């Protein structure tokens, strides 16, 4: 009555609907919470704007003070209009001069349920980010069809696992190395099985990705220990020491987990690309020898390797670009730059991930070739 593909399609659609519904419910819960932070409001009028010079120096800038009328859109005071004072330091790039119609986040102070004071601390950007996500989802479905839908579903589950499940487990004191390894393997198996089904190329991809990620993790651990990376490379890692849960984190373990997660996507991509290409070659020419098929797979891997390594390294360089510019601006020597904890961390992160990516190529080719040879031998026995 219904083909397997149609059943899978309906399952994916229903799963996607439930996922998006869950996100919407979660967002509504956040918006309607009793918290006095993260309240959304819309600027309805600019009452006054005054400028005060704080220094006569040319580059010091000044202070602009705005009296702004805003309409509260979420929380317990939804529908109320209030006047807030917005002070803008014109010499600071992270201060905001408001305009009519701007959607902002405000924090309020209240006594006995009445607002005493409120101030703006950030623009509300979530609506436009949601539009971007919806555009991505629509494009994936239009171009990828059912596979695009499956990819969206697996991506949603992966994002929830990394942004919700992993931090929750780490905050409960679970070992970051063991947790990240188990989660990585779970993500690999789940994603590849849902997207490509249970077949030879999926198994080869799982083997190649798992081995590549494992190699990246081992190298990161060894080199991290040799270079005495502390895991305190960012402000966020240092701020973790003061969280209310009073957890003593294994910061080296957290660094290992971050490297593993960072390399996972790229390695999975290259493993599936090679396994899929070899499968297509085999389908187009069933009489090709296993040795020739593996040679073709390595040729595909060589072409992918350069661009994917560049992608991975450029992503990490981009993440630390401001730190590099800062060090160069103060004419810090190359030796001092490369030995900075944050820079060394990014170098280890980028190169260990790239090594894992490169290693996954011959492993995927070998796995795909051996699995194909085994299938041929079984068919001959029959």
Fold and architecture overview:
With 382 residues, this protein is of the alpha+beta class. It has 2 domains: 39-124, OB fold (Dihydrolipoamide Acetyltransferase, E2P) (Beta Barrel), CATH 2.40.50; 173-381, Multidrug efflux transporter AcrB transmembrane fold, CATH 1.20.1640. 64% of the residues lie in helices and 14% in strands. It is built from 10 helices and 5 strands. It has helices at residues 4-31, 126-171, 176-196, 200-226, 235-239, 251-284, 290-319, 321-329, 334-338, 341-381; strands spanning 39-53, 62-72, 81-89, 103-111, 114-123. Strands 3-2-1-4-5 form a 5-stranded antiparallel β-sheet, with no helix packed on it. A hairpin with a 2-residue loop joins β4 (103-111) and β5. α2 (126-171) crosses α3 (176-196) and α4 (200-226) runs antiparallel to α6 (251-284). The chain is elongated. It starts with a helix and ends with a helix. The relative contact order is 0.08. The model is unreliable at 23-35 and 54-59 (pLDDT under 50).
């Amino acid at each position: 009555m219904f083909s397997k593909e149609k059943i899978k399609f309906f399952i994916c659609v229903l799963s996607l609907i439930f996922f998006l519904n869950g996100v919407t419910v979660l967002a509504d819960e956040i918006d309607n919470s009793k918290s006095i932070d993260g309240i959304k409001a819309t600027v309805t009028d600019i009452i006054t704007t005054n400028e005060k010079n704080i220094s006569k120096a040319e580059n010091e800038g000044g202070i602009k003070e705005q009296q702004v009328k805003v309409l509260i859109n979420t929380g317990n005071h939804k529908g109320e209009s209030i006047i807030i004072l917005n002070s803008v330091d014109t010499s600071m790039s992270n201060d905001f001069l408001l305009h009519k119609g701007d959607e902002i986040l405000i924090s309020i102070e209240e006594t006995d349920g009445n607002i005493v004071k409120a101030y703006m601390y950030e623009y509300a950007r979530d609506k436009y980010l949601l539009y971007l996500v919806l555009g991505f989802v629509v494009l994936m479905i239009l171009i990828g069809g059912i596979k695009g839908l499956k990819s969206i579903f697996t991506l949603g589950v992966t994002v929830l696992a990394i942004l919700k499940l992993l931090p929750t487990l780490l905050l409960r004191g679970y070992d970051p190395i063991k947790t990240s390894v188990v989660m990585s393997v779970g993500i690999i198996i789940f994603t590849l099985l849902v997207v490509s089904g249970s077949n030879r190329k999926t198994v080869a991809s799982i083997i190649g990705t798992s081995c590549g990620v494992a190699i990246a993790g081992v190298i990161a651990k060894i080199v991290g220990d040799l270079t005495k990376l502390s895991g305190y490379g960012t402000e966020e890692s240092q701020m973790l020491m003061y969280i209310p849960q009073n957890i003593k984190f294994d910061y080296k373990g957290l660094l290992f987990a971050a490297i593993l997660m960072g390399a996972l996507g790229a390695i999975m991509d290259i493993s599936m690309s090679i396994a899929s290409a070899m499968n297509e070659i085999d389908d187009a020419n069933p009489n090709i020898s296993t040795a020739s098929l593996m040679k073709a797979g390595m040729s595909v891997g060589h072409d992918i390797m350069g661009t994917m390594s560049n992608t991975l390294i450029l992503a990490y360089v981009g993440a630390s670009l401001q730190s590099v510019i800062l060090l160069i601006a103060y004419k810090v020597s190359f030796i001092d730059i490369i030995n900075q904890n944050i820079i060394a961390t990014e170098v280890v992160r980028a190169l260990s991930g790239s090594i894992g990516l490169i290693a996954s190529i011959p492993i995927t080719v070998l796995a795909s070739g051996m699995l194909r040879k085994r299938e041929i031998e079984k068919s001959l026995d029959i």
